[in-house]
Amino acid sequence: MGEEKKVARKKLKSAKVLGKFMADYYHELDRASKTGKKKIAWCTSVGPAEILRAMGFVIYFPETHSAMLGSTRMASDLIPKANAIGYSPDICSYLTADIGAYLEGVTPLSKAFEGITAVPKPDLLVFNTNQCRDVQDWFTWYGREYNAPVIGVHTHRGVGKITESHITSITRQLEALIEPLEKISDRKFEIKDLKKIVALSRECSNLWKKVLDTASAVPAPLTFFDGTTLMGAAVVGRGTSAANDCYRILLAELEERVLNKVGVIEDEQFRIYWEGMPVWGRLGIHFQLFAGLKANVLASTYCNSWIFSDLDPTDPFTSMARAYTTLFIVRSDAYKEKYIKKMLDFFKVDGIVYHDAKTCPNNSNCRYGMPQRIEKETGLPSLVINGDLNDLRLLSDEQTRTNVEAFIELLEENK
Ligand code: SF4
Q: Taking burial as the number of CB atoms within 10 A of a residue's CB, which of 7, 309, 346, 352 is the most buried?
């Protein structure tokens, strides 16, 4: 793969602003770790970050670090190190790559950001099982290594209709975090601080949604492969005004593209929806593969996962419970199908690509007949790609290319 002529990709000027945000974010964590002046909390990517921020913690997200292990293609060599201490090659390759990196004493941060040589040491680790059980095992392992407390929220899974009992149970669990957090941070919880952070987080969510929604324009100004990087500020920076400032700049640039009918690829003929995790070590190659066939993968459930429209600063705990329970990943297949169909319509999609990520069943929605059901109802063709988020040994580039080419041919015939 990658030997053909490269397709020009219209670069976003504001990507630099987002890049600087990420650099500032990691340098702040590094300072906190080196000086001990601020407490550091590790948090899962859809964990209760707003509460941690409101209590003055600097927050580190191991999943983002592991995505970097994937995109820098360090992961495949590190995963066996975690396998050797009993973490199966079949479980989350974020977990195994990250633990492998720790065991080897390496991090992609040291190449990306000057002066950073290690990930920050946690004062505590906070998980939410809304995405999977792996995050709890992952954090528990580090809790033992660093001798740091591990606390968390256990969320309902496979949820169809969300009831008051779902929300009440999560609200109580979020409230129960306050006491241990006060002890560790040596700071009293103030509801006004949480309201302020939830307001900023909601604003971040609104801006990020608007950014992603610009891809409904024809031609689309954005590609999913860019979105996976641009979403960094929404993942690690929600609840900060700096993240919101970045997204205002990005949104303005994308809206200008829409106004001037500037697409991210030159000649957009096919519009594709991506369902599942990205293959982090293949972002550029996959962009080229699709763009070379005049197809733009322009929208995804994955990037939408950091839209939390239920957040409400006037009722922070309950609205956080609602926001983190209405998430796609937590829901039943019936809900997921309805959601995907809405997205296909909104983004004017010609076909769907499902990524069956070997080590993440939680984000692989093609194992129980969903593609077939959606295809039957919408008439839109779909393709399943076998691969993985981080473990490049689990995918065949040649197979992917052959399948994608055949898929685009099919879309061409359908036009
Ligand atoms: S959702 Fe998937 S990729 Fe994310 S932590 Fe869980 S198993 Fe890993």
A: 352
